[in-house]
Amino acid sequence: MQWRSIVVGLVVLRLSLSCVLWLAFGLGPNVSWGFNFPLGFSLHKLDLLFREEKGIDPKGSSWSQRIHGHIHEEAATTCANVGEESTKRSYLSFFDGNKDEYVRRYSSFPDTLKAKMKDMAKDMFYFGYDNYMKYAFPEDELNPIDCKGRGPDVLNPSNININDVLGNYSLTLIDTLDTLLVLGNVTEFHKAVKLVIDTVSFDKDSTVQVFEANIRILGSLISSHILLTDPKHPFGKVGFDDYDNELLHMAHDLAVRLLPAFENTSTGIPYPRVNLKTGVPPDSINETCTAGAGSLLVEFGILSRLIGDSTFEWVARRAVRALWNLRSNETGLLGNVVNIQTGQWVSKQSGLGAGMDSFYEYLLKSYLLFGEKEDYRMFQAAYESIHNHMRRGRESCNEGEGDPPLYVNVNMFSGEIMNTWIDSLQAFFPGLQVLNGDVDNAICLHAFYYAIWKRFGALPERYNWQLQAPDVLFYPLRPELVESTYLLYQATKNPFYLHVGMDILQSLEKNAKVRCGYATLHHVVDKSKEDRMESFFLSETCKYLYLLFDEDNPLHKSDNKYIFTTEGHVVPIDKRFREKQWNDLFPCEEGVLAEQEPNKRPPPSNTSNCNRIPEERRYTLPLKSVYMRQIDNMVGLF
To answer: InterPro entries this protein is in (predicted)?
Structure first.
């Protein structure tokens, strides 16, 4: 009977303390017993109270308060120290009113709901794809509001928002080929491949961006060719009898037409645009972004190794090396716009979003594909510089005090913050962190972007983390958040990420669906639309959403490993791509990073990093509720 007296005493003590705290500070525990005056527990108030008693500055030096050393009084740290919790279950858990709202919402996801979301993602893809084929093919894109096709803007050649991407080569159909296989539609895949072979030519008077033509067209042709000809990866035997490597020949033809971009540059960094018929335009500018020039190695490298011609990998790798050798000696960072003739940085901003993103991505993925240790040494050095100079917030994602980790835009030479916005393209980075095995940091950054999505039902192109408001308001149905969600689910199998995918699916259905497809959101607040459905919506956004809910997809069951290109095209990790028919491209060249030091961690294995989260954490929240609530508060959800 003694233990009962102890429990009763503890209950009385807790209720007494709750009343005192509630009356004095409004700090009572979240207990309402059905009344209309819940006693809300405020970690922030307790944190300030204890800090004042200890004589500690309650503001700290968090990224939400400080830029260029100036403290903004209106932003305060909202998280107490939860990193020193006992590993034993506290008796207080018996009185917590079951689980908090985050645990209740995210901790399970029924199989029936998963099947429903899988069908919903498939229907979303086919609604866009079928209407493209009905109303737009053979043009490049579908205008989903007017139900018409869209090609290059021939009347306004300077309209690079359109003309960089659209080359009058049935872009959406080509970009979508391997998505048809992912969805299991071999019949439509064969039909689409034959249409591409019979109707598409690259002998066009079209000036396109080298980067976009590479990732959307060249990458899809190579991926589809591999899937057609190699029954081991990963969909089995999907070839047809009269296929004679036509997609590979088309990829080679396109790559040859892109090669003039690499000529007549004193640095080896390519021009940003070429005319597919005539080469580099006479009025071409001498400036390009780091991602555009440095994200060609995966597609060009695979092509070189498939056809036994080193030219394509050589020019792509030379561009990567040239950019790498221009990094800051002080910080190790690169800028995002460079002059291809002088090697001078035009923009000294260094970040993870537009102009930079896929450069980092392809350093790691090139290593995974080709096994070139130099690629991983560059990635490892870049990743260290990113963490040293861009990362703000508390040291640990899931422990400790302070603001959540965030990667900000900085000056490449000094590491000082240049502005207070992040862009939607940066949402790819948690997925890259998963591939590198840094799952904890991936969890935190992903949670920040998901909180922005929850607030607006979309990701604004730029979001100002200091003002808690969008800087650039449109959302063109980008896939980056979905991609990271999918990869984090593969790494953790945590049902939280299925809920994230469901939220994204339902938001797209509610806010972007129109008469003939899904439209770009012109304004994430009022949900007004633009009449454009970019090809990556079908090739990436729908693909990752479908795969998120399809546990039995051949990609997940295959014994062979694979990666996705930056455009979401499936590429197997194959020993063929580690074999070269030529000598090293850059033997003993200056600027090569030294061999890995013994105390550095080894490169990631060329397999999945899907077992990095301890078993006991897989079915709890990936991020503690107090930190989720903190992030939601910091984007203005509360």
So the answer is: 6hp_glycosidase-like_sf, EDEM1/2/3, Glyco_hydro_47, Seven-hairpin_glycosidases
